Amino acid sequence: MKQVAYFHPALRVLHWLMAAAIIAMLFIGVVMVSTVSSLHSLLVSIHKPLGLMILVLVLVRLWLRFYTATPALPATLAVWQRAMAHLSHWALYAMMIAQPLIGWGMLSAAGYPVTVGGWLLPPILPVNNDTYALLRPLHSLVALALFATVMLHLAAALFHALVLRDGVFESMSGTRKR
């Protein structure tokens, strides 16, 4: 593939759309599980379709990622930094796929119908209390890991943008390199 300075425009749009959706989803999830008010139903009605949207968008994003040229990391980065960058990106992709599937599986195992926009989605697991008991804390654990990884990703992006000024941030923001 040819060498490029910026990510494909579709990848950039998906990146920023998904960043907003994931941060919103994490905060909605925290508030949702900590309230028994009438707000709970509203948050659940947002949480499910947003999770499904994130799942679909990450699959589209991965497809684009494999079929478009991507900018190389700066040669000035140490080998361990390159390895951590790649590892953190693949961890983010894995969690962005796993988290909605765990949620869907959790609801399926609990016997709850999964509806999105009036559409009934098929269960992906049979009703089983033991499976639900495993998936419920796993959904929370992956959410915490996703939050921590997103924060590390944000810290690294800011480090590249404000300290190193090496073009890594600009390759995703689409702004001109200095």
UniProtKB/TrEMBL annotation:
Cofactor(s) recorded in Swiss-Prot or TrEMBL? heme b
Q: Does the keyword Membrane apply?
A: yes
**Protein name per UniProt:** Cytochrome B
Keyword line: Cell membrane, Electron transport, Heme, Iron, Membrane, Metal-binding, Transmembrane, Transmembrane helix, Transport
Q: Where are the transmembrane segments?
A: 12-33, 53-80, 101-121, 141-164
Q: Which domain of life is it from?
A: Bacteria
A Pfam family annotated for this UniProt entry = Ni_hydr_CYTB
Q: What is its main location?
A: membrane
